Amino acid sequence: MILDTNALSAFADGEESVGEILRQQSRASIPVIVLGEFRYGIAGSRHPSAYEESLDTHLRHFDLLAITAETTIPY
User: Fold this and answer.
1) For position 69, what pLDDT does the model report?
2) Which of 10, 30, 41, 61 is the most exposed place for a label (fewest CB within 10 A)?
3) Cβ atoms 29, 3 nearer than 8 A
4) Are 7 and 43 in contact (CB under 8 A)?
5) SS3 of 11, please?
6) pLDDT, greater one: 53 or 67
């Protein structure tokens, strides 16, 4: 499963439905552009430290995808 920025944000906000879907997946991936967009959003948030800490904790569970033509197929 490849997460877009909205799904990553929902996961970071603790949306239970996103967590449940992710637990059912054997792999979950984040394209680097999505990670960049998310970090940009964190910078302007009310709680940037909390979001950065959460991201650092959870990021190791995701595969990071370079943006290539192959990335777009399952996306």
Assistant:
1) 85
2) 61
3) yes
4) no
5) helix
6) 53
Q: Alpha-carbon dihedral of residues 36, 42, 44, 46, nearest 10 degrees?
A: 170
- Indicate the residue type of 74: P
Asked if residue 63 lies in contact with residue 27, where contact means CB atoms within 8 angstroms, the answer is yes
> Does residue 2 contact residue 75 with C-beta atoms inside 8 Å?
yes
Hunting for tokens 């910078």 — which residue is that?
43
Residues 25-46 pLDDT 10s: 999 999 999 999 999 999 999 9
Structure tokens that stand for 9 in this block? 């944000």
Q: Where are the domains of the chain?
A: 5-65
One-letter amino acid for residue 28 of the chain? A
Report CA 59 to chain centroid distance, whole Å.
8
